[in-house]
Amino acid sequence: MDQDHIDSLLERYLHLLHEYTSLREELATLQIGMYQNIARANFAAERGLRFGQDYYDDRMQASRRLAISYQSRDQAQDQSESESRDKRDPTVLSGVVPSFTVISPAAAACVSSLAAKDSKVGVETPDSRPHPEAEVEADSMEQSAVETTKTEEAGSASTPSSRASIVSKSMEDAEATASENSVPEVEEGRATQQKSNDPIRWFGLLTPVPLRQAQTQSIRVIEHVIPRLASVNVEMAEVEIEVRRARKRRAKAAAAAAAIRLSQQGGREQEAGARTEGSPTSDICA
Amino acid sequence: MAASQADYKDRQFLAVIGDEDSVTGLLLAGIGHVTNPPDSQKNFLVVDSKTETAAIEAAFESFTTQRKDIGIVLINQHVADKIRYRIDTYTAAFPTILEIPSKEHPYDPEKDSVLRRVRRLFGE
């Protein structure tokens, strides 16, 4: 019985190991693609420009966050688990393992605000990348919003500091779209905030295509591979502990069985000795 | 376990320790976070050839024990090798440590702590 339990645990462990290795492969492939794309973006960039830490925004806020939940084990393993749980001490099996998921609260918040305000703004989640043309327009829209807020704050004479050349290029377009735009300003402000959360904006407005591809791959790594790897890792550790416990129990049971056998043997020898004497009591005992 | 279960809900960030391209790539996905001004703690560390092991260790210490808002620590495998003794003795449930490949150092299953655990389980 102990052996069966250990075997079923090991079987589950091997399934997890398989998932772990395939996730590892996927991670490696995605990361290789990501590095290649970053290298390509750097190669195509102007001299001296490198897409790296010099451009990180020091006020960055995470747009993808972790959600850890404790779930009971699912599917097939649950069955074997519940079977074995009936038989043995319930404290041995903790029953729940933490599972990791990555969510983007911007999207969640945007959905809730959508429900609350019933407005059309902010449908874009960071995941749903718009088409290139649409994006260019969105860029100019965003820029327009930035511009309007800036001019409101500092008067019309304010000059944007670092990205002046790019900004001035799109300013006319931006203003044009702003005049056409009928969306109320408050909502537009929120849209700006959401859009500017996108880390690709650290590297300017017109980021090279390879960098965007790198971003797509990286999002896949963060949303799908990493949380699953972490969950599998934790689950494997849990199963390891259970296997060790079961092995220890088996060893203990084996030792106890051996002890009983020894004592029985001793008893039988005594009995045999008694039987040779021919006493009737020993027959009753046997 | 009970203590870690209590605080797991606050652990909402992923931290990265790695070379510049790894960190850049992963930050592009939007996991980078800098806490509010007084202390302004970053959840990432860019490691290059000049970074001292002590700095890596300090970052690891900060992400794993001091900060309570980090759920997964991603670390380049070659960086993890520099503080291998710390990684191998780390046993807490949260945050989870994951070693990831880097540009110049592809993933080596021999060094992977999970696969070493597997070997220990079957090899004993």
Automatic annotation (TrEMBL), chain A:
Coiled-coil portions:
229-256
Write one Pfam family the protein is assigned to: Vma22_CCDC115
Q: Does the keyword Signal apply?
A: no
List, in alphabetical order, the Gene Ontology terms for molecular function in this entry: unfolded protein binding
Disordered: annotated segments: 69-92, 117-195, 260-286
Query: Keyword set for this entry?
Result: Coiled coil
Give start-end positions of Polar residues composition bias.
69-79, 156-168
Compositional bias per record (Basic and acidic residues), positions renumbered to this chain: 117-134
User: Could you list the residue ranges that cross the membrane?
Assistant: none
Q: Give the UniProt record's GO annotations in the biological process aspect.
A: vacuolar proton-transporting V-type ATPase complex assembly
Q: Does the keyword Secreted apply?
A: no
Give the UniProt entry's GO cellular component terms: Vma12-Vma22 assembly complex
Protein name per Swiss-Prot or TrEMBL: Vacuolar ATPase assembly protein VMA22
**What organism is recorded for this protein?**
Xylaria flabelliformis
Automatic annotation (TrEMBL), chain B:
Q: Which UniProt keywords apply?
A: Hydrogen ion transport, Ion transport, Membrane, Transport, Vacuole
**Which GO molecular-function terms appear in the entry?**
proton-transporting ATPase activity, rotational mechanism
| One Pfam family linked to the record | ATP-synt_F
List GO terms (cellular component aspect).
Answer: fungal-type vacuole membrane; proton-transporting V-type ATPase, V1 domain
Membrane topology is:
Peripheral membrane protein
* Subcellular localization: Vacuole membrane
What SUPFAM superfamilies does the entry give?
A: AtpF-like
What is the role of the protein in this entry?
Subunit of the V1 complex of vacuolar(H+)-ATPase (V-ATPase), a multisubunit enzyme composed of a peripheral complex (V1) that hydrolyzes ATP and a membrane integral complex (V0) that translocates protons. V-ATPase is responsible for acidifying and maintaining the pH of intracellular compartments.
Family, similarity comment: Belongs to the V-ATPase F subunit family.
**Self-association or partners: how does it assemble?**
V-ATPase is a heteromultimeric enzyme composed of a peripheral catalytic V1 complex (components A to H) attached to an integral membrane V0 proton pore complex (components: a, c, c', c'', d, e, f and VOA1).
* Protein name, per record: V-type proton ATPase subunit F
Q: Which organism is it from?
A: Xylaria flabelliformis
